[in-house]
Design goal:
Layout lengths: L1 H20 L5 H25 L34 H7 L1 H17 L4 H4 L19 H10 L2 H8 L1 H33 L40 H34 L2 H4 L6 E4 L9 H8 L6 E8 L2 H47 L6 H20 L5 E2 L9 H6 L30 H15 L15 H15 L19 H10 L31 H10 L59 H8 L41 E3 L19 E3 H20 L7 E9 L2 H9 L12 E3 L15 H21 L1 H9 L3 H7 L5 H4 L1 H37 L4 H25 L4 H9 L5 H8 L4 H21 L1 H14 L3 H9 L6 H21 L3 H22 L11 H26 L10 H25 L11 H19 L4 H11 L6 H9 L4 H5 L14 H7 L3 H35 L18 H8 L6 H4 L4 E3 L7 H12 L4 E3 L3 E3 L5 E3 L15
Parallel strand pairs: 8-9
Antiparallel strand pairs: 1-6, 1-7, 2-6, 3-9, 4-5, 10-11
Length: 1309
Amino acid sequence: MASSALLSTLPTAVSTAVSTASISGSVISTVTSALASTITSSASLTSSSSSSTTSRVLTTTRSGPINKIPNDESTGSAQKVEGISLVAFLTALATSLVVFGVQMGLFLLLRHKLARIFKPKTYLVPERERTEPPPASPWNLLSTVLRYDDREIIKKCGLDAYFFLRYLQTLLVLFIPIALVVIPILIPINYVGGLGQEVVDTNNTDIEDPDVPTGLDTLAWGNVRPENYRRRWAHLILALLVIIWVCGVFFAELRVYVKIRQDYLTSAEHRLRASANTVLVSSIPDKWLTEDALRGLFDVFPGGIRNVWLTRDFTKLLEKIHRRDAIHQQLEEAETELIREAKRRQLEQRRLEEKRVRKAHQVKAESKKERKHRAKAEDDEAKRRAEDNGGLSVGDHEAVPHDVATAVHGGEKPEGKGLDDIQEGESEESPHHGPRGGNGLFRVGENLERGLKKGVGFVGEAGHNIIVLPKALQQNVEGELERTGGFDFVKDGAQPSPTSSTSSTSSAYDSKLHPGDDEAQPKPSFASETPLHASQARHAHTLSEASQASTVQKDPDSRTTGNTTRRVSNLDNMYITEKTRWYEFWKPPSGGYVSPVPQGYEREDYPWKVERTKWQKFKAAIPFYHSDIEDVEYPPAFTQDYATEKEEGAEWEKWLSAKDRPHHRLALFDWTPGFLPALPFVNKKVDTIYWCRAELAKLNLEIEEDQQHPERYPIMNSAFIQFNHQVAAHMACQSVTYHIPKQMAPRTVEISPNDVIWDNMAIKWWHEWARSALVFAVVAGMLILWAFPVAWTASLAQLDALVEKYSWLHWLIENNTVHNVVKGVAGVLPAAVLALLLILVPITLNWLATFQGAKTGSQRSETVQTYYFAFLFVQVFLVVSITSSTFQTIANITADITSTPEVLAENLPKAANYFFSYMILQALSTSSGTLLQIGTLFMWYVMARILDNTARAKWTRNTQLPSVTWGSFFPVYTNFACIALIYSVVAPLISIFAIITFALLWCAHRYNMLYVTRFRTDTGGVLYPRAINQTFTGLYVMELCLIGLFFLAVDENDNVACVPQAIIMIIALILTILYQYLLNRSFGPLLRYLPITFEDEAVIRDEAFQRAQERRLGIIRDDDEATALNRSAPGASDGKDIELRNLHKRTKSEADSLSRLGKLNPVRGIVHAGSWAVRGGRQVRQAAFGKADDNLRTATIYRNERRQKDIEAQRAIGDALFGGYHDEIEDLTPEERDVLVRKAFQHYALRARRPTVWIPRDDLGVSDDEIKRTKEFSKYIWISNAGTALDSKVRVVYGRNPPDFSEVDIINL
């Protein structure tokens, strides 16, 4: 019986473990949290099951045991605790209450002592995300957490965190009224005059009738006597009220969700980001795979296109990068271990020498105080060495900008040469521009400089430094401000307005305006990569931005509408002239229009496409086979072969022998997984450092060479398109873009560059479909076959049966002590093992969602949310409630689909008491475990001492805060809500437990999200409406269960008595389904996309925000802004202002000729900014040349000052390594934002930089010698010991960020 009781605890224990560990930041941390929760749950529910062994069996609503499922091994484990008394229930909760108190006590005790664990967001994140330290008093802490402003939560945590908390709050809104209304009505109806009256203690009753309910079941549905069948109308009415209430709350929540999401997406802070106006377009047909074609297609939307990033299949290059990362980590660990082992040998030799000297001179051994003093001195010296500017570094890669200023200026600090200091006649090879080729982001700064000069019509020819065309100058600056909403003061010229397009006359006009400027010729945009073939022009051409600006200046009406390939002169080519034969039913009749063609289309001429044979096409279709990529011969990467040339005179040889160096065995094949163990005599053993040096040098060379030639990789049928206006991006996603199904679809908006899964960008749409089918089959198999691992883990608890079956296990029971220990382990082991297995479920689903082809982390989270909810609902609820296996559950439900309500009605009420315990255990163990963070504590104080042996590992541990995997986090609580809804009428007490559960979890998660968890990526809250839709599952099952219960209800004569109620409930079920359909149909477009009604007002907010940012950065002063605003007021301008204003007046005919779409251009709130920007000729020149440079310089000074302030404040709390860096886009000037955004969606394979082998610095010279020998070995390895040291216990310490750390990488664009 004990074994059976234990088996019944497994599902709840596992669910508790999963829900507790969902927020953990690593697998090991997740396992630790799960085990702690499992032990609590197992102990509680085991006592619950043991206490209820004498409980009576819950009856059905019939007077006799008709169609009653026996309570044997085939029934659900939840039915084994039916009829539990109140005393037994409270006794079972005693253990959970004790554990809850202990965990809460430890949390309150440790939260002030361990700030890094319990409140890191008060100092270890950028200033915008920081929260004030929580109060010391527990009651003040609770008050602060509960009263924290919702808008601040959105600002500091994002929409996902806010809507998760709101979901828990919504569940409280649901169940508090349900409890207040349903419980006072239904409990008296169920109990008064019922079949059973024993609630408190069932052990003293003499009732032997198994059909009489006992314990908590006397308060539920089954206690109503048959002669009181008319009371069922109360159940029906309250069930209808519950349905109406839930549907009403969900309607209100979706309205609030839409409003909050719209406010967030149209906020000035969010509109700064590249994700706000960038669209991922998939399945683009070949003939549209040019930048010209995509610009010509999508420029119909307001504002036109800003950047186009065509994607390539960099799978092979990504494989090299992933392999390099693994080898780099292996080399870093091996070098660190070599240096530490040499230091250990030196310390051991020093100890023996001192011992010999003391013995020779008969001196006492060193005292404990002296040892402590020496250790402190050595630790202080290590700290000094780690924090000073010493250390060696060779192989530095020039493409690592350590801050924004370096990234923008290409290695030149703003305090140095400004934009005005570079002469206009200088060529690109001028020494002022620094080195070429080594720094990819240096070219960004060059483009910015050239764009600023071209923005005011600068003639770059040598000897001609002339400012030309003041009217063109003024219109160019003002047009730029109007186009960008004032966020990019002056950039590479202006993009075309919504009413203008490229034309054949623009090039001629531009050549007159800029004679000799080759930059004005048709060229690829910045976002695209290098030419596909070095000897030919790119496949995608666009007019330069200066040329487009000139077109606007000349004539705003000179737009050549339509496609430039098809003309009136070749009108006949637009018709289908081929006659359709009678049997060609798949073709339309002749005489129709031919398929549209893109800009620059010339029949089947695709220069980037290479004709392939059928065999090549077949090989290309094979997964993981990259037949399109030709082998490249690379130059030698290193100068020494360690296999033939041994090292001599190395510093490590003074302390170690060659066999003491780190070694490892090589895998037989490149594709062999790294977790497989290597076998002696099978896998070759090599010196780790020598082997890793050679491999790392070779990979660095190959990767950097391939990055310079992206044309080697085939182009893919997808592209990122960045629009100038946010509303244009959302319009593009909602429009029917292409005339053939499944082409140029799907289109996804609100994509963060950090959220893109680059490995999946090369997956074709038909591969994605095939993978989706395969993943669906795997998930279905997991749902059905999960009974096998559950049965295996359950067998671990049956020790006596195992000993009896296997004679070699008899020794376990021969010794009483061993027997008792084994029994204790067997009591926890099944739940613990099953918890570990279940923790693998969200990890597996996450991998399957990635394999399925999700392009972004948000899409992956949505997929995981769907699959994981289905898994939890089936395994944690249906299987536990109905039968002990998924097979039997499916068989019972699908044997006769019309009997599904009856199956649910006969089984679900019996499991009510089980879920009472289930809900309250979640409230106690999960909430306190979430606050205490057992897994994080274990990782910091146990696993970190074992695993974190390198400086980089320790730095990562210290600067990386816990995160949440939302796809596997939401379903756990959605499943709770469904269970509570299902039993809200059948067993009304569930509402009380649901309120306690959701309230405690809401408080616990609210604290964690405010003070502990950091959110780097955000889905924009799209998981919230999906969770609401999944919660409807609880309503449907409740309705089905009530339909079955009404049909099963009989009167005193055994006649079916509640048919009218059942029919009404069937109608309610149909109406609920219809309501959900209409709800999703009505809100569907608004759940993801923005309407156009927000754009004008959003532009005004952009202007106000930008002015506030400029004041904060010191770019403008308050008096300057007041003067500008006053001058823009009517009648406040002087003669010069009037003269300048006359330069940009538009005639009424010009204004009337603008397209209606032009109204969406953010001019209304920005026209004053445009006028202010062009006041006076001297101001214009300053705005065009000096303003941007001054902005960059001022912003850099501001960031440096704030960085120092942050560091000083954080040192008062603890470590300040991360706090000095700013990863918020608001901290950047418009010029910096524009430069960085242009590289935002460049493929990760092209942005990956050479990593630094960061090794500890020692006083023996081993580290310096390793760096010297690495330099001699190859110039393609970056190795450094700067900012590191070894302390008195030979532990690695660090005093700064890694040498390859870049502030640019953490900016959330």
